[in-house]
Design a protein that fits this description.
Elements lengths: L26 E4 L13 H9 L10 H9 L1 H7 L5 E11 L2 E9 L10 E2 L2 E3 L7 H13 L6 E6 L3 E3 L3 E10 L12 E8 H4 L6 E7 L2 E10 L2 E4 H15 L1
Parallel strand pairs: 2-8
Antiparallel strand pairs: 1-10, 2-3, 2-5, 3-4, 3-9, 6-8, 7-8, 10-11, 11-12
Length: about 240
Amino acid sequence: MPKISKPEENIINLAVPAGFDAEAIPIYEVCDQQLKVAAELLNPLAIKRRLQSPPQWEPEITDENRHVIAADIIARRHAAGKVTRAAVLIPLLLKPDGLYVLLTQRTNHLRDHAGQISFPGGRVDPGDASPDETALRESEEEIGLHRAGVEIIGHLPEYLTVSGYSVTPIVGLVKPQAEYALDEFEVADIFEVPLHFLMDPANHQVRVWQSEQGGRRFYSMPYEGRFIWGATAGMLRNLYHLLKV
């Protein structure tokens, strides 16, 4: 996501307050009563077919999306001359025991989403020919992911973030690399999560943050000491909704 944010952007960046601890927010419910994705739909060929010939399905609109629309965050950012388009890669690693999702842990000093778990990606540059190009370029820059080892198989619906971006999630099948070259300014660490874990609604928590503006629900998917939440969890929920049909 964006590398540098300036103080004058604060007026149009209505993200969570500094020091916000999402993991400390109580769990409101767990989605264990929702339909589980069938195991046969979690292989590379089935996912590729589903993305390229999707059935009728409904993307989920999160409270974050509603807040961005209600506060007109993206339009205000655009009017101020700020970049509002971004793309991320959802890297599905092809491993012998199944698919894994490669995720990044952002560094703590970043202005937007510091310390959070994200997909590799970032804002669209003028020279990018498409969101695919943005996601591949940013993945190379952030973690040294070789684009020759990525097969893009489809897109998910755009996701609106409180930091003022309309993000296009790009889904790709990825050959694992022996080593990754991390951009130390942006990325503190990378790790892998089994896709079947992330696509199991029993691992999807709903938490409710109470603020002066009222309650706001968000998803979390804790995994082995990693706290996946916010926009990353929201995009994973849409992949879940597409695959569960």
